[in-house]
Amino acid sequence: MPRKPKVPCQQPGCAELIEPGRKYCDEHRKLHPEITRSEAKKPYSSSRWQKVRKRYLAAHPLCVSCLAKDPPVYSKATVVDHIKPHRGDQKLFWDESNFQALCVQCHNEKTLTEDINPEYKY
Which H, E and C letters describe 4-62, residue by residue? Predict the structure, then answer.
């Protein structure tokens, strides 16, 4: 049975051919940490996160993004957002200085923007 042809690495300027189903060659894979959606959601279902989230929202009940508008809008915060995406980094995930309280609408707008334009450091 014929095998699928190899495909080029998706890193701009890299011509390395890799097995189908992979995105990057071994050299560039470390630049693009990829975690599955289920792995990313795992910490959010822990009892530790639920306690931290509840405590943080009690201390910060209003959406910081809505408050920054002119004129300010007073919306109840229901989501604890990570200012800098943790992308699986546990130290950054639990760092409370990286938290902000947002309403669902502001959180969805921010997350959509970050997912469309992810920030990679080389």
Answer: CCCEECCCCCCCCEECCCCCCCHHHHCCCCCCCHHHHHHHHHCHHHHHHHHHHHHHCCE
